[in-house]
Amino acid sequence: MHALLPRHPVPALNVALVGGGRHVLGAAPGERFDLVVFYRGMHCPICARYLTELERLAPEFAQRGVGILAVSSDEEERARHMAEKVQARALRFGYGLSLKSARQWGLYISSSRGKTSIGIEEPALFSEPGVFLVRPDGTLYYGAVQTMPFARPSFQDLLGAIDFAIAKDYPARGEYTGEV
Q1: 53-95 pLDDT, tens per residue?
Q2: Is residue 107 a contact partner of residue 128, using CB atoms and an 8 Å limit?
Q3: How far is 149 from 110, CA to CA, in rounded Å?
Q4: Is residue 73 within 8 Å of residue 41, measured between CB atoms?
Q5: Does this model's pTM top 0.85?
Q6: What CA–CA distance (Å, rounded) separates 169 from 157?
Q7: Distance (Å) of CA 9 to CA 49, 136, 142
Q8: What residue spans of the chain are helical by DSSP H?
């Protein structure tokens, strides 16, 4: 596993969308950023709450020129169920993320422990959460990955960070790769 580097290209991302079509990252980038939110899957009640908050704030991201994609390795039916659960109108849901692609993005992979607290079976293998802001040129601006579903970045805080970054033309940080 490796971490993605700010100011460097992110891995390719090409996933099917709930409702039809495909999302190819970079094909029609947001004006300022694309926000890619990797979630664990339909089995995760914390993901549902997190994505419900993102759906609520989606117009705020759009006003700032940020396109949004929520994506998991779930199959179409499970992804559609999650989109319905969060009452997605603004959010686009991608599905069928390969675990190889998840690894390329630096996401952690977990194995099933059976049914979750809400009685839904976990897939045999699935990726843990990650949140990324990608510039229109396909380079990483911000990234956060988790080993657990808990303590994810706040979308409200992320909006404030985007406002600051835009106002101050703040560069992506964490780019240094030399000797330490």
Answers
A1: 999 999 999 999 999 999 999 999 999 999 999 999 999 999 9
A2: yes
A3: 11
A4: yes
A5: yes
A6: 18
A7: 30, 10, 12
A8: 45-63, 76-85, 99-104, 155-168
